[in-house]
Amino acid sequence: MPFRPRYTGLIDKYRDRLPVRDDTRVISLGEGNTPLIRLNHVPGDIGCAIDLYVKYEGLNPTGSFKDRGMTMAVTKAVEEGSRAVICASTGNTSASAAAYAARAGIRAFVLIPEGKIALGKLAQAMMHGAVVLQIRGNFDAGMRLVKEVAAEAPVTIVNSINPFRLQGQKTAAFEIIEELECAPDYHCLPVGNAGNISAHWLGYREYYEHGIVNSRPVMVGYQASGAAPFLRGAMVDHPETVATAIRIGHPQSWDKAWTAQKESGGWFDECSDEEILAAQRLLAGREGIFCEPASATSVAGALRDARAGRIPAGSKVVCTLTGHGLKDPDIAIAQCGDRVTTVPAELEAVRGAILDRLE
Ligand code: AN7
Q1: Which of 92, 264, 318, 340 is a Cys-bridge partner for 219, taking CB atoms 3.0 to 4.6 Å apart?
Q2: Ligand 1 mean position to 164 CA, how many Å?
Q3: Can you tell me which atom of ligand 1 is nearest the CA of 327?
């Protein structure tokens, strides 16, 4: 047959490296296998000579990297006989949990901070039939409540404190190595709860320890200035940022992320909201890649560190774009208010508007 087998998700692909049995019922929506795109314009635009790739995780089934972890977490919850999952979320985890619970035929409960989640994410949780509990508090308060309620009720937590989440998410590192045919020199990620940077480090270590590659990347985590506990070296009680996905002050994977930083020789840094949004616009306008604000934090930070020489010229750098730009239409439109021109439905007006803008 000239055809390759149909791609059926990351558990099927990486079965030998994941904690599943042959008879495990896999709950999948075909997640993983996302594109690794080389940036053609952006590094030159801002005057740095690095070889920069983005791993476009916004192309997962629910539009974020969370699906990699959720396929594992929900598969294992179902295997263990659970009838309900629960999470606290800044939006993407709730969208993913809701979708995979629907796929599995079980119930999802999601706790979200009132007024602080992007519109697309709320729409997803609602459409997939999750029980959506808006709390008058932030993500960190929601996380505490989820842990307390799950100690009493028969619900499985699917936040990244669930170890199966990180197992699923480590496969992103496998894919990157397979595509580049080596490990990158640097891997930059936005950091909120710090599960994803920890999961990538697991994946890179695994391929290194099993002799599949002979190097591991330096891991670099970027946070929004108003929600940067790793940079401050202490928890932040009132996190604030336009990048609502990473509006987290008490990261759950605190120790794991520090381990990734230390073992890889990496660092944490912060980006201002302005830097984050500028990077989001640059990717959309110059490369045709639309990511949500939190995701752009990785590129904002990498470009700054490359320009400053902290990431040396010639380095092969991967930035994870964690979520799709369509998740947060409000922030996108607010940045480009003057880009829509209203004209009469007449040829002359349309022709005039076009000719004005052609060189
Ligand atoms: C787009 O959905 O925590 O450091 O509740 O949605 O692994 O937490 C989202 C996190 C980066 C940070 N980019 O990843 C949630 C949630 C996007 C995200 C992060 C999130 P972690």
Answers
A1: 264
A2: 16
A3: 1
Strand-pair partners of 157: 86
Q: Does residue 269 come out as left (phi exceeding 0), alpha (psi in the -120 to 50 range) or beta? A: beta
**CA 155 to centroid of ligand 1, rounded, Å:** 21
Per-residue pLDDT tens digits of the chain, which is 359 residues long:
688 889 999 999 999 999 999 999 999 999 999 999 999 999 999 999 999 999 999 999 999 999 999 999 999 999 999 999 999 999 999 999 999 999 999 999 999 999 999 999 999 999 999 999 999 999 999 999 999 999 999 999 999 999 999 999 999 999 999 999 999 999 999 999 999 999 999 999 999 999 999 999 999 999 999 999 999 999 999 999 999 999 999 999 999 999 999 999 999 999 999 999 999 999 999 999 999 999 999 999 999 999 999 999 999 999 999 999 999 999 999 999 778 889 999 999 999 999 988 97
Residue nearest to atom 20 of ligand 1 (CA): 245
Could you give phi then psi for residue 133, rounded to 5 degrees?
Answer: -110, 110
What distance in angstroms lies between residue 194's CA and the mean position of ligand 1's atoms?
8
Tell me the Ramachandran region of residue 233: left when phi exceeds 0, alpha when psi lies from -120 to 50, beta otherwise.
left
- Nearest Cα residue to 186 out of 283, 281, 303, 288: 303
**251 vs 140: CA distance, rounded Å:** 8
Ligand 1 — pocket residues by CB below 6 A? 64, 89-93, 160, 190-196, 245-246, 292, 294-295, 322-323
Q: Give the Cα separation of 249 and 240 in Å (integer).
A: 9
Question: What string of DSSP letters covers 170-183?
Answer: THHHHHHHHHHTS-
